[in-house]
Design goal:
Two copies of one chain form a homodimer.
Chain A lengths: L8 H5 L9 H9 L3 E4 L11 H6 L17 H13 L9 E4 L1 H13 L5 E6 L4 H9 L2 E6 L11 H7 L4 E7 L11 H14 L2 E5 L25 E6 L12 E5 L2 H13 L5 H10 L4 H24 L12 E5 L5 H10 L6 E4 L1 E2 L13 E5 L4 H24 L3
Parallel strand pairs in A: 1-10, 3-4, 3-5, 5-6, 6-7
Antiparallel strand pairs in A: 2-8, 7-8, 9-12, 11-12
Helix pairs in contact in A: 4-10, 5-6, 5-9, 11-13
Chain lengths: 405, 405
């Protein structure tokens, strides 16, 4: 008699993506002919730079070989030029190219922490950090930030109180997904001070570096003095060049022991994809005007989305960066509302897909009324999406009222 | 006073790749103008099919977006056609496309086992399984196979004796890296019987499916009856299409609970690279004549390498598949010899790079005199490489003799 094996505990506990879990409801709506406005996923509609797209045509060898585990030397050279523009001097040994920012975070977590160890992350945070922590066997200790403060870091003593004997790292994402919050140099200095005193790493996810508004400038963890042994920066070209499908990221640190370990993890998985690295190298030549246009466009969307949400009585603040906003909707259960939008709501043949925010919190019960909205549609579509959302909120309110919710 | 954080225990213990660890010595030799014959790495010199290379030029959209976490639907359809040719009927939900075979194995191990669990692997085995097990927090229990038996599986009671309460899976690689061994249907049936009775998964790495010689045919774990709940197959296009740099692999299983878990792991890392999947889909149209030529070429190399090694008194058997061979060299320490070849040995301006085999064993002390040789050079180069190796063995013998080793 056959005994059927079961998946592992982590395989059972692994969370479904709250960003992707409504996918089947979306497909069903689309099959009905409904136009779904996608505000749920950080997939920019902005055109990729021609430099990147042309880069994919540069490969002309007759064999497509493995590259070095740390990345193609030609791409590493280009990355050094890219970071130099941001005032961050690096050498090749400080960088390992990864398969997207996802692999950068997974490998970094494995290299700094063992199963049972803890990492501290301000919440709400990029929901896949939960999955990465589960893969690595780590516990997430959340540091709660609040919509009322526009998701700025709380007083530093709250952060330091979370640092325990098994804490190995503080993970930051600025400009932030899902909040759009941009941490100031003072906030980062405060975190760095705790990291140095308590002997923990700071892992900074800086994939939205380019997307900062209101004339402010991104501050990198690698900019801060005295942090060479503590700072790890993870990066990706997905958002920068609107190239999420390229799956090219990197890990950057001046801590040579850490980078030596990361290289051995990198050797196990052999190398990141070769042709995508060639395209990514070409994309470093994207002219500044490309980013000026893109940032102007996102800025316009950001203001429009913010004003339209305020206009329908939704609680939200103008975010300082990235292309997301966490809004508190006038509903008790944003999960239910997000599903209802796809299954029941139709406004002039359209509906809206949003990401319920509870999946971005580690503290149970937080974010039940909140949703992440990604402004990855042009202003005309955002306007139409907001018309649809406003109608949806009104209809949902009366429906739910009628059902006693 | 700053406290410097340390890397994790697994970050310290993570093994350097025995295949790649001699890289710096190789670069130094090349900088001296020495021609290094690479027998150390499974990077085929065979040209990639034009279908694949042209596939990279098919992408013509203006945005490079995320794909679905399970893979592009168009590629999944092509994979079903590919496996159908091998007599393996599948549906789309049985497949998740991965970033190379490496990611396929890592995600599979995480989905079947928790930290502290065990997996059984016949040794010598593909050395990176060690790294993947370490990432996942698993212990490898090796089942030793021997050169004398041409690395066939030992009697099944030896395998069953290794199955304990924490054993979650048996990992097989056939055709095998590093041994070239091809397991028979009888051997696989025996393993399957144990897996069913003991309730453990069988994870079969079948990336060398095409490369079987002497008129034999590869047997897939998915071919065996009664194994739908137990069998997981991991695959990659790296060797099939000589496309190691594409980083496209997949996980295949008819166990729906397992595939559901794998999809959630897959969602965390978002998706495999988009353009590489388009190229991989195009490559499924590679005509059978391509493989006939390639297999004829490898077969010729295999016989030549085997004869030349026997001719210089090296102990080895003719392998039945893949493009590797494990040979026992007349040296006490193949690690030292492999380094010496790069640093000290010059034969008509050439030397040879080999992979010491001790890194392919989990049992300490095994494989000290053995090396893996990959026949990824054309016959002329294999002949010249063997001239250089023969001269090296002779010189090393007298040098080491003189030094009392």
């Amino acid at each position: 008699m056959a005994r059927v094996p079961e998946v592992s505990s982590r395989g059972k506990a692994m969370p479904a993506s709250p960003i992707r879990k409504l996918h089947s409801l979306c497909v069903a709506a689309q099959n009905e002919g409904v136009h779904v406005f996608h505000l749920n996923i950080g997939q920019p509609d902005i055109e990729s730079p021609v430099e990147l797209l042309r880069g994919y045509r540069e490969f002309s060898d007759s064999v497509l070989p493995y590259g070095p585990s740390a990345g193609l030397p030609a791409y590493l050279k280009k990355l050094i030029i890219y970071y130099e523009r941001w005032g961050i001097p690096l050498s090749e040994r400080d960088i390992l190219v990864t398969t997207g920012g996802s692999e950068a975070i997974i490998l970094t977590l494995m290299a700094v922490a063992d199963p049972g160890d803890e990492i501290i992350i301000p919440e709400p945070f990029y929901t896949n950090y939960n999955g990465f922590a589960m893969m690595a066997g780590l516990t997430v200790k959340p540091l709660t930030t609040r919509l009322e403060d526009n998701f700025a870091l709380p007083p530093l003593d709250q952060l330091e109180a979370l640092v325990g004997p098994r804490t190995r790292a503080i993970v930051l994402c600025s400009p932030g997904n899902p909040t759009g919050a941009v941490f100031t140099r003072e906030e980062l200095d405060g975190v760095a001070d705790i990291a140095r005193r308590r002997g923990v790493f700071v892992i900074a996810d800086e994939v939205y570096r380019e997307f900062v508004y209101d004339g402010k400038k991104h501050v990198s963890i690698l900019d801060l003095p005295g942090m060479d042994e503590h700072a790890v920066m993870v990066d990706s070209i997905s958002k920068r060049y609107s190239a999420c499908g390229a799956r090219i990221g990197c890990i950057v640190s001046r801590n040579s022991g850490f980078m030596n370990s990361i290289l051995r993890f990198g050797q196990a998985r052999l190398c990141p994809p070769t042709v995508d690295q060639i395209a990514a190298a070409a994309a470093v030549d994207t002219p500044p005007e490309y980013f000026e246009r893109v940032i102007e466009e996102y800025d316009c969307r950001r203001r429009l989305l913010h004003q339209r949400l305020l206009g329908m009585g939704v609680d939200c603040k103008l975010p300082g960066g990235a292309f997301y906003m966490v809004a508190r909707l006038p509903v008790a259960d944003a999960d239910h509302f997000a599903a209802w939008l796809l299954t029941d709501h139709r406004h002039e043949g359209t509906t809206v897909m949003i990401a319920p925010a509870n999946g971005f919190y580690a503290t149970p019960g937080l974010g039940q009324s909140e949703a992440r909205l990604a402004y990855v549609l042009n202003c005309g579509d955002i306007d139409r999406a907001m018309d649809s959302l406003a109608a949806g909120l009104e209809a949902y309110g009366s429906t739910m009222g009628a059902h006693g919710r």
